[in-house]
Structures are given as C-alpha cells and as structure tokens.
C-alpha cells in the first residue's frame, strides 16, 4: 500500500541526509510523481525504447531500480523472445517492496518477462552481456568520481546495437537558466501539494546525497565511456532522459 508523502511536513531541528529506507519506500511512488515533472511519461517511454532495442535472448538491466517502475514498464512493452530483466538496488527496503510489486504484476500479465530483483551495489556489480541498460534517476546518487567507471563498464557490457537509457536531474552552467528552472520546479511541487517547509527540508536532506551534472558533463562522460552517440529524448524543466548508443 502506497502512502502519501508527508516525510518532511513536520519541522526538524536538524534535517538528516536523505536515505532510501523503509519510510521512503512506503511513500516513494507518491513522492516521485509529485516531485519529478514528466515522470509517468518517462516511465512509459522507457518501456517503448527498450522494446525497440531489446535483442532476442538478451539481458536487460535496470540499475538502481528502486521500486521497479521502469522494470514494470519494460515487462509490459518488450516482446523480444527470451529476454530477461535484472533489476538491482542497494537499498533493502526498496528491493523488498520492488519484489512485491513485480509479484503483483505477474498476476496481471499473460506472459510476464522474467525479472530478477537483486540487492547489490551497481558500482561494483558484475554485468553480463546485455542489450539495454536503464539508469533512471540513479547516476546522480553515485559518487561523481565513480560515474565514469560505471558508465564504462555498462558500455563494455552492452552488445553491438545496445543502448543505455539515462534519466537525470540537470544542473545548468548558465545562472539565469538554473534559477529560472529551479523556481519552476518549486512551483511544480507547490502545485502538487508540497508546502514551502517540505520543499526546503527535502532540499536540505538531498543536498549532499544527490549531485546532478549538466547536460554537457553527461554527454562528455558518455563519449569518454565509449558510447558513439547520445541525445536527449525528453526534457521537462530541469529533468531529462537521454539515449546513449553503442
């Protein structure tokens, strides 16, 4: 059962760093829908993009899967024969609930794509050859100095014709752009029922945990990792999703 996100509605004397614990797992679907503009479109489209690029008898990875929204979307859309999804997250509370959600989805799909949910750290998890990898709002939580190595390992695991789907919150080098889109994002949150107190406390909690990059940094790093081409396929305010090709 999903609860309404009220985690930051009460004033704290000291705001602790954000963590994907049981409290967050319980409200996460509500939190992300009310916090990330365009999130439902991104999730549905990940399934469509994966369906275009998934190769028969291949693995698909959902890295930093949280509650498995992207995995569920891919299970609805991917029709390539013999594909399997491996969904990985390092938060036990998220993994446990993700397994419950996928089990419930099993009952609703005629021939559900096999999906395994693994508790593990994507930074050092050994990746087998695969045709699609999803990093949906995950890389921004990886230490900046570890991001290139992770992307390089993903690129090495991807088969020819494979793709990485990378969704991220963006920073902007131009101060005016950054401030304008930040203020619009806060307006989006207010319109979804968050108070100024909730917005401010969540910002404090996540400040040193989630470290976004600019679009230029992302694309330069993807090139360094060995991807031949990358482009944005979706952007709403300061949130975007990209496709990187082998």
UniProtKB/TrEMBL annotation:
It comes from the Bacteria. Pfam families: Methyltransf_25. Residues 60-162 form the Methyltransferase domain. The keyword Iron-sulfur does not apply. It catalyses: prephenate + S-adenosyl-L-methionine = carboxy-S-adenosyl-L-methionine + 3-phenylpyruvate + H2O. S-adenosyl-L-methionine binds at residues 39, 64-66, 89-90, 121-122, 136, 203. InterPro entries: CmoA (IPR005271), Methyltransf_25 (IPR041698), SAM-dependent_MTases_sf (IPR029063). Keywords: S-adenosyl-L-methionine, Transferase. Its EC number is 2.1.3.-. PANTHER family: CARBOXY-S-ADENOSYL-L-METHIONINE SYNTHASE, TRANS-ACONITATE 2-METHYLTRANSFERASE-RELATED. Homodimer. HAMAP family: Cx_SAM_synthase. Belongs to the class I-like SAM-binding methyltransferase superfamily. Cx-SAM synthase family. Catalyzes the conversion of S-adenosyl-L-methionine (SAM) to carboxy-S-adenosyl-L-methionine (Cx-SAM). This is Carboxy-S-adenosyl-L-methionine synthase. It comes from Halopseudomonas sabulinigri.
């Amino acid at each position: 059962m999903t609860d309404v996100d009220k985690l930051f509605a009460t004033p704290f004397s000291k705001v602790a760093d954000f963590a994907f614990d049981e409290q967050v797992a319980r409200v996460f679907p509500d939190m992300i829908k009310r916090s990330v503009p365009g999130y439902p479109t991104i999730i549905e489209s990940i399934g469509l993009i994966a369906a275009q690029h998934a190769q028969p008898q291949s693995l698909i990875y959902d890295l930093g899967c949280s509650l498995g929204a992207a995995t569920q979307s891919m299970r609805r859309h991917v029709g390539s024969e013999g594909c399997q999804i491996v969904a990985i997250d390092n938060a036990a509370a998220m993994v446990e609930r993700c397994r419950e959600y996928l089990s419930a989805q099993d009952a609703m799909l005629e021939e559900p794509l096999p999906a395994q949910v693994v508790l593990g750290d994507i930074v050092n998890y050994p990746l087998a050859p695969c045709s699609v990898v999803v990093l949906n709002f995950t890389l921004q939580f990886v230490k900046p100095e570890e991001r290139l190595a992770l992307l390089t390992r993903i690129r090495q695991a991807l088969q020819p014709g494979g793709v990485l789907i990378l969704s991220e919150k963006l920073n902007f080098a131009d101060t005016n752009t950054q401030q304008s889109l930040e203020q619009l994002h806060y307006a989006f949150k207010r319109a979804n029922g968050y108070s100024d107190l909730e917005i401010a406390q969540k910002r404090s909690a996540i400040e040193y945990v989630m470290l976004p990059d600019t679009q230029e940094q992302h694309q330069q790093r993807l090139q360094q990792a060995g991807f031949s081409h990358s482009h944005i396929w979706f952007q709403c305010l300061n949130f975007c999703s990209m496709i990187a090709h082998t």
